[in-house]
Specification:
Length: 501
């Protein structure tokens, strides 16, 4: 929260914000759209970005509605506290020299400010879920806690808290499904009813995930395999070979109620998505994009760029996960099913996204569409930390130094605006006519380098300026947030101290 900008930065975010507002204010999904030209593809009329008309002529956002549902309480909080309940001055803490997608007035500014903080809470929940998942798959509390901290502070998860994009919520929901499955497997022997309930939660999470972003559908086969692997491995014969289909089905019998319930709940989620698309756009398989925004393409550019390009590499923008590559072999030994889930989910998203012309995710930071896979991939780092006590002093220093550098890098990226940097690239003669290609492949155009030319875009600094002008209230609020953070850090530190080897 202390690095949040307090504003909606992207046109995608504004469309989702308008959907959130419509849900809370009118119980509807219809929106007005953005009045001026923003992200329309060439040839599309100004003001048409992010929405499509339904058969009845109403406008609907083409992004998933899961984030709007999750953000509805934040919007309600903003509405309940809007000026004059909070001082007008608080709405002026946001930098005023940035591009905006709404008409500037106190109530609208405050609503955007409050709703824009949603992903701060979502990412905190994801870090907690990551710790729980790692503990349930058999890693130590110490390794799980350190990995949760590394995910929150040493990967793109931190900069993405600044956005109102759906990727942080996708990460949370997919990880929640994995946690529920891991719990079901651990509880199956002694508490079969509780295990069934966990499988139902996993199915519900998977069903909700497609409402956050339709791309999350590609995770379904791997989540299903993750749930079924213990039964398949348990059905091997004495010679280690797989048994007959009947034997496999018999092995599934104790979990039949949980698995069927999970499948039904996931199917219900998908069915509601298809129904919603049919009602809004007249076609169950139409998301509202109508082919305007992307198409299938040769995947090679996206494949290598999302791994190696200075502006898009996953391993540059999630350095803590990169360290974890050195622990993947250990992770496969300690938790093979969970590790294969993480690798399979990452590889599938990487392949599918790379085959689309919009693989880069617009004016976003790093590999936007791979962000939801980062928490699961952190299992490699957890295994590395688990083995550190048995490694040399040199290796231990190298790992802790790497994690410190990771936090410094992503903290730096979390204080500037990628949208502001992309506008700067647009006006730079070196990238004239090739802004996107330059942002992907030119080292000097990477935000890691380019952010040095930008001013901080942080709401808390605005609160400091307001306090100097005689309006300390918002800064007091940040002080309370910081105090809570310090108390929580103390509790985590105590837990790590008690779990030391």
């Amino acid at each position: 929260m202390c690095t949040a900008p307090g504003r909606i930065q992207f046109p995608d975010d504004e469309i989702v914000f308008q959907t959130t507002a419509s849900l809370v204010e009118r119980g509807s999904l219809t929106i007005a759209g953005i009045a001026h030209r923003t992200g329309e593809p060439p040839g599309r009329p100004p003001g048409t970005f992010g929405w499509a008309e339904g058969p009845e002529g109403r406008r609907y956002g083409l992004f998933g509605h899961g984030l709007s549902l999750v953000a509805a309480p934040m919007y309600a909080l903003g509405r309940a506290t809007a000026p004059p309940r909070v001082p007008f001055a608080w709405t002026r803490a946001v930098r005023s020299d940035h591009f905006t997608f709404h008409a500037r007035e106190p109530r609208a500014d405050w609503l955007h400010l409050v709703v824009s903080l949603t992903n701060c809470l979502v990412t905190a929940a994801t870090a907690w879920l990551l710790v729980r998942w790692l503990a349930w798959v058999g890693l130590s509390p110490r390794a799980a806690l350190w990995t949760g901290l590394a995910y929150a502070t040493g990967t793109a998860a931190w900069p993405y808290t600044r956005t109102f994009l759906s990727e942080p919520l996708s990460a949370m929901v997919l990880l929640a499904a994995a946690v529920a499955i891991a719990q079901a497997q651990a509880l199956r022997a002694g508490r079969p009813r509780a295990a069934d309930c966990r499988l139902w939660l996993a199915g519900a999470a998977a069903g909700f995930a497609v409402h956050v972003h339709v791309l999350n559908l590609v995770a379904w086969p791997w989540l299903a395999a993750y749930a079924l692997v213990p039964f398949w491995t348990g059905s091997k014969g004495h010679d280690g070979k797989g048994m007959s289909l009947g034997a496999c089905l018999k092995a599934l019998a104790p979990a039949r109620r949980g698995l069927i319930g999970a499948a039904l709940l996931a199917g219900l989620g998908l069915g509601l998505l298809l129904l919603g698309q049919w009602l809004r756009f007249g076609d169950a398989l139409e998301t509202g994009r109508f082919g305007h925004y992307s198409a299938w393409t040769n995947p090679w550019t996206g494949l290598w760029a999302q791994m190696l390009a200075p502006g898009r590499s996953l391993w540059l923008y999630a350095p803590a996960a990169t360290l974890g590559l050195f622990g993947m072999r250990a992770a496969l030994r300690r938790a093979p099913a969970a590790t294969w889930l993480a690798l399979s989910l990452l590889a599938t998203r990487w392949l599918v996204v790379s085959a689309r012309t919009d693989w880069y995710g617009g004016w976003s930071l790093g590999p936007r569409h791979l962000v939801p896979a980062i928490p699961l991939v952190m299992i490699g780092l957890a295994a590395l930390i688990e083995d550190l006590p048995r490694r040399s002093v040199r290796v231990r220093r190298w790992v802790w130094s790497g994690l410190t550098a990771s936090a410094a890098l992503t903290g730096w990226l979390a204080t500037r605006s990628i949208f502001e940097w992309m506008i700067a690239l647009t006006n730079d003669p070196r990238s004239a006519g090739h802004v996107l290609e330059t942002s992907h492949f030119a080292g000097w155009a990477s935000p890691i380098v380019g952010f040095g030319s930008l001013q901080p875009d942080v709401l808390m600094l605005g609160a400091v300026r307001l306090a100097r002008a005689g309006h300390p209230g918002l800064l007091i609020g940040f002080a309370v947030v910081a105090a809570i953070g310090l108390v929580m850090a103390g509790l985590v530190g105590r837990a790590l101290w008690r779990a030391r080897p």
